[in-house]
Design brief:
Strand content of chain B: 15-25%
Number of helices of chain A: 22
Number of strands of chain B: 9
Shape of chain A: elongated
Distance between the termini of chain A: 93 Å
Shape of chain B: rod-shaped
Helix content of chain B: 40-55%
Strand content of chain A: 25-35%
Mean pLDDT of chain A: 93
Number of strands of chain A: 38
Strand order of the largest sheet of chain A: 26-29-30-34-33-32-31
Largest sheet of chain A: 7 strands, mixed
Oligomer: heterodimer
Radius of gyration of chain A: 42 Å
Structural class of chain A: alpha+beta
Structural class of chain B: alpha+beta
Helix content of chain A: 25-40%
Order of helices and strands of chain B: HHHHHEEHEHEEHEEEHEHHH
Low-confidence stretches of chain B: none
Largest sheet of chain B: 7 strands, mixed
Radius of gyration of chain B: 44 Å
Chain lengths: 809, 341
């Protein structure tokens, strides 16, 4: 909704500037988004007469003008324009002017002669070029000969209007009209409004009821009324009306269309004009479209009705989509002589559905969606007839045809001052509340201890005490309500254990040098393909979005791996080659496809490492991150989360290198999967360097995190150390040997650390040498060499037996 | 004899002073004081002296020996000091060379901002509640007084999964879920942070996914003044004590009265700039007194309790806090951006 100050001034005068009024509107809940000034930059542009014109002695195209701008002395201006002549009156930008196109006018010299201003073209003044002739558009804009000299150019150019652009909220249907905005302005400024006096002379003998039949055949229409005008002369509407419409952002078309638009903006009631002679059977009915019916609208497009659309139909066919757009056949043309003017009230939700389904949003549909004042429909019809009549463009037939099956009931709201004050936290008097409500058009009576407010017909949004509290507070001013803090029983502020756990994960990973990313929850089949997700995988069963933003991301993600890979690829493309990223977020698994209930949401943790192990530097090695960097990180993370006693084994994952995939397990349950990105997947993503990934399930991790932490007391006696170097088959998994060592270490066994892995010279083909450091320790005494040796030999025997290990010479 | 001793002492001291390093000094020690050294030779040759002279000469020799010893020690001290300073000089490094850095981890700026928001509210006694991101239309809209085909639904164009299930367009459904999980009329102080989804084109100020914090306070006697006080307190903590706060009447179907809350522009301090479009104010959150229908639909009695609710965009607060001018930076995850926080 936008409206010019001039239109508002037709009904109310005020001393506030447009900006001040806009601020008052905004601060009372009728937000003004923009104040648009046509005269922006025209402060120092005046009218001036060219008293003398000479050619510039040093130029073949410049001319010297001596300008009378209403001052005692003439002003010399050099111009390059060729369409000027002595005696003409033109717009002159004086020194200091800052034109709409950004041009700053300064004192200057052109080819040696001083120039103290500039003659302006229409474009330089930001005039509406579409309304000008080519002659007016080219060169300096020549004003009429009778234009006074030395007055502000904006006044004579009609650029003195200011437009308020509102961004109205969905509840304030009443403010979608000039009258509604004037009503608010009256309350906000305290000035008296003067609404248009609506009178209509029925000066044609014909009776409307004899000419046209009106009907309602659907409960989606509350009221349907019409008047008939005859002897219509279709032509342009008067200048003042075109100006008002232009300020409202509506193009003038002809007097009939302009009047219906004018009434819509003025009173908020959309209207439609039909060519009477094109209405089959001279009857109009509001009914649901029949399925398959052709809807041929004003924009010359045809739609096949689904049967849910409300239409206005004549005896044969739909003559328009009710409340959305009129039909083409009954459009008013220059040949039209008799017109049916229609005004109605339609169900907002239905109009909204139809307008969305057809992709047709109009000034009318917007108003119907929010709801029109059903009681004001006859006024709108009368107003339209009055305006046509005042132009001498028609005669008005007798009476109005009005179908209004169920009279709208007056809404009453009961309230007490205490209720309102309790809700607002104020101590307003009942009288103050009554004053505010009355000014807004409510009529308030006392009722026992409390009050009853009759809601004005245009405020369909007000239905309960709480609505009144809003009306009172917005006019009283939110700023005038003193802030307080809620009080009551003390409540514990806390997060859920899961939220705490996720925070802990993030904190640990950041400490380990990982950076958190956040990615969209969308994915697509292409990404799943690139990640080598098998055809039968659960990850392929992603939830589809009915109305995705683009076809690129039609699915809700089932894996964070695709997201983190996308981010890695984006970083690579920007030459960020060293990445340590992690992401904690939910993924979504439908219970069944197609989706009938909410999917399961599973919070996953993924990590990615790639590039150099160390920072780039003169004193750092250029080693690349490898599998064991990632594994070490996962081990540290699990330790920090108090998860221990898990096993690690070689495993499989579709996206990972089959020989470089490790599964961390508690019993049979996998708690972490990590490995190198499958070379095929790397190729699919166009990645040349090695990428390592891990994935975990937050709920699973949480299950295994130790609930209580107890420290281990420090040992009082020293540990005894033994090194065990053995040769085993190359395929033997180190973790299995460690398990056997641990199991056979005896009661003083403390720990085992693998400190060397060797193949090559002195080790037979197909074998490898592993060196473990073993620590033995007692809480009660220093161990003797014999005790340590015994334990060592037991371990050796066990690994010899189980792995065919040989003690390395 | 005495003269000979004095000459010997003088020669020794001269040699000591000339010694350039510890080896030379040691050689001198051997030469004069060693078992076969010069002074030893004199002592040995004392047999030729008379009994009277012997102690006298012996004393003179010992004095001379002590003097030589002292000279040696003094020279040794000096040589050591020289050696040390020479070593220190040779060990000098360029301390201006860069240090050996360790890769640092970083939390996402939205997480950092979210943590600050959560901290403020948790300290005020709010609990942090969660709800599903793929939500029922009922909780996302209907239970919030937004029936189907309500024009206010245009404010939020949503991603639908089915006609009844959508990607939540706000974290407000957690309000209704929390109320419905409670005993009727049980007091509530909660925030619901999380991801939300809207069908907005991805540009400098819009994103199809973003982060929101919804808040809800319900108790007996909660008023609009309490809403103002709580949110002012929050905004002063998250920005600063001097930031201006303004409440503007607005409309949300789930609250009545409703307010848009603005802060004075953090970039220009209210003067008017590009960020605030010249108004001096920045829209920062939406709030209002919970609509009685919303309470009723979730089993709370609006005659007994009242409450206020608010919703804020975490991206917006992060952008204003850090001076970030393009929302896409949050979701591009360029490490050069992430590593600044």
């Amino acid at each position: 909704m936008q409206v010019s100050i001039k239109w508002l001034n037709d009904y109310i005068k005020f001393n506030e500037t447009a900006e001040e009024l806009a601020d008052k509107y905004t601060m009372s809940g009728v937000p003004v988004e923009n104040v648009i000034r046509a005269d922006e930059g025209l402060e120092k542009v005046v009218t001036g007469r060219i008293e003398k014109l000479e050619a510039h002695p040093d130029s073949d195209h410049l001319q010297i003008c001596q300008m009378n701008v209403g001052e005692s002395e003439l002003v010399q201006i050099i111009t390059g324009a060729q369409n000027v002549a002595e005696g003409q009156i033109v717009p002159v930008a004086m020194v200091g002017a800052h034109l709409p196109n950004g041009l700053h006018i300064k004192k200057g010299k052109l080819r040696g002669l001083p120039s103290n201003g500039m003659l302006c073209s229409a474009e330089e003044l930001k005039m509406d070029l579409t309304k000008l002739t080519d002659e007016e558009k080219d060169g300096i804009y020549i004003l009429p000969a009778d234009t006074p000299v030395g007055v502000p150019a904006k006044d004579v150019l009609g650029l003195d209007d200011v437009v308020l652009e509102f961004e109205l909220t969905a509840n304030r249907a009443d403010c979608f009209s000039v009258v509604g905005l004037v009503r608010e302005a009256a309350v906000l400024t305290g000035n008296e409004p003067h609404y248009p006096e609506i009178t209509v002379k029925e000066d044609d003998e014909a009776k409307a009821a004899d000419m046209i039949k009106i009907g309602i055949d659907s409960d989606l229409c509350d009221r349907f009324a019409a008047r008939v005008i005859k002897n219509v002369k279709v032509g342009p509407s008067p200048e003042w009306m075109q100006q008002r419409l232009e300020g409202a952002g509506i193009r003038a078309i002809n007097n009939v269309v302009d009047v219906t638009n004018f009434v819509m903006v003025e009173l908020g009631q959309p209207m439609h004009a039909y060519d009477y002679d094109e209405i089959a059977g001279h009857s109009l009915t509001a009914r649901l479209a029949k399925e398959g019916e052709n809807l041929h609208t004003l924009d010359d497009s045809s739609r096949i009705a689904k049967g849910t659309e409300l239409v206005i139909a004549d005896a044969e066919k739909p003559a328009g989509l009710a409340g959305v757009m009129g039909g083409l056949e009954s459009e008013v043309t220059e040949k039209t002589t008799t017109i049916v003017l229609e005004a109605a009230s339609f169900n907002g939700a239905s109009i909204r559905r139809t307008s969305r389904a057809c992709g047709l949003h109009s000034e009318a549909s917007g108003r119907f969606e929010r709801g029109v004042d059903v009681t004001a429909i006859p006024r709108a019809l009368d107003r339209a007839c009055q305006l046509m009549q005042e132009m001498g463009a028609c005669t008005v037939t007798q009476g109005m045809v009005d179908v209004y099956p169920t009279q709208k009931e007056q809404t009453e709201i009961h309230y007490t001052a205490e209720q309102i004050n309790a809700r607002l936290g104020t101590q307003l008097s009942a009288a103050k509340m009554m004053e505010i409500l009355t000014s807004l058009g409510f009529s308030v009576q006392t009722e026992g201890e409390g009050f009853v407010a009759q809601v004005p017909s245009w405020r369909g949004d007000c239905t309960c005490m709480e609505d009144l509290s809003e009306e009172i507070s917005r006019i009283y001013g939110f700023d005038n309500i003193a802030p307080t803090l809620p009080w009551g029983a003390v409540m514990q502020g806390k997060q859920s254990p899961r939220q705490d756990f996720i925070d802990k994960i993030k904190e640990v990973l950041v400490g380990l040098g990982m950076t958190e990313e956040l990615s969209f929850s969308f994915t697509n089949t292409d990404l799943l393909d690139k990640m080598l997700v098998p055809a039968d995988s659960k990850l392929r069963q992603a939830v589809p979005i009915m109305n995705p933003l683009t076809d690129d991301y039609p699915l809700v993600r089932t894996s964070l791996l695709t997201s983190i890979m996308e981010n890695a690829v984006r970083n690579f493309s920007r030459k960020n080659m060293d990445l340590r990223l992690f992401d904690v977020a939910p993924v979504f698994f439908p219970k069944a496809l197609p989706v009938t209930e909410q999917p399961d949401e599973v919070v996953k943790l993924v990590g990615l490492m790639t590039g150099r192990r160390n920072m780039v530097g003169w004193n750092q090695t250029n080693d690349m991150i490898d599998f064991y960097d990632m594994k070490g990180l996962v081990e540290e993370l699990l330790a920090s989360l108090s998860i221990s006693k898990y096993t690690v084994e070689a495993g499989e994952h579709f996206a990972l290198h089959p020989g470089k995939t490790a599964l961390f397990k508690k019993g049979r349950e996998v708690i972490a999967t990590l490995g190198e990105l499958h070379p095929q997947a790397a190729e699919n993503f166009g990645i040349k360097q090695k990428v390592y990934l891990f994935e975990m399930d937050v709920e699973v991790l949480m299950k295994y995190t130790a609930k209580n932490f107890h420290f281990d007391s420090l040992p009082k006696f020293p540990a005894t150390s033994r090194d065990l170097a053995i040769v085993v088959d190359k395929d033997t998994e180190a973790s299995k040997i460690e398990q056997v060592i641990t199991k056979n270490g005896g009661k003083h066994f403390k720990s085992v650390t693998l400190f060397d892995v060797y193949t090559g010279e002195h080790v037979a083909e197909g074998k490898k040498s592993l060196a473990f450091n073993l620590q033995f320790q007692s809480k009660d005494k220093t161990l003797t060499d014999e005790e340590a040796d015994t334990a060592f030999h037991n371990i050796l025997k066990a690994v010899e037996k189980q792995f065919g290990a040989e003690l390395r010479a | 004899m005495e003269e000979k001793i004095a000459e010997l002492q003088a020669a020794a001291v001269a040699e000591i002073k000339a010694a350039g390093d510890m080896t030379a000094l040691n050689d001198i020690r051997v030469k004069y004081l060693g078992k076969k050294g010069e002074f030893t030779a004199i002592l040995r040759g004392m047999g030729n002296l008379s009994a009277e002279e012997r102690p006298k000469v012996g004393k003179i020799v010992n004095v001379a020996k002590a003097a030589v010893e002292e000279a040696i020690n003094a020279q040794a001290g000096e040589l050591k000091a020289k050696e040390l300073s020479a070593r220190l000089a040779s060990e000098k490094i360029d301390v201006t060379l860069p240090g050996r850095n360790v890769p640092q981890g970083h939390l996402h700026p939205l997480t950092l901002t979210m943590q600050r928001i959560k901290d403020i509210f948790v300290h005020m006694g709010f609990s942090v509640e969660e709800g599903p991101e793929i939500e029922r239309d009922y909780f996302n809209f209907e239970a919030l007084n937004l029936p189907k085909d309500h024009p206010a639904r245009d404010m939020q164009d949503s991603f639908y999964i089915t006609d009844e299930i959508l990607m939540r367009s706000q974290t407000s459904p957690v309000q209704a879920r929390t109320m419905q999980a409670n005993e009727p009329n049980k007091p509530i102080r909660m925030i619901a942070p999380g991801r939300v989804y809207r069908r907005d084109e991805y540009d400098a100020t819009h994103s199809p996914m973003f982060t929101q914090v919804e808040g809800l306070v319900i108790d007996k006697g909660i008023s609009f003044a309490d809403l103002k006080g709580t949110l002012e307190l929050f905004l002063h903590q998250i920005f600063n004590e001097n930031v201006g706060v303004r409440f503007r009447p607005s409309f949300f179907p789930f609250t009545e009265p409703s307010a848009e809350v603005d802060i004075s522009c953090v970039m220009c301090h209210g003067e008017g700039c590009k960020v605030c479009k010249g108004t001096g104010w920045l829209e920062i959150l939406g709030a209002g007194m919970v609509h009685p229908h919303v309470l009723e639909m979730s089993g709370y009695d609006p005659k007994v309790v009242s409450g206020f609710a608010f919703g804020l965009g975490v991206e917006r607060i992060a952008m204003l806090s850090y001076g970030i001018d393009d929302l896409r930076l949050f979701y591009d995850n360029d490490v050069r951006f992430l590593q600044q926080f």
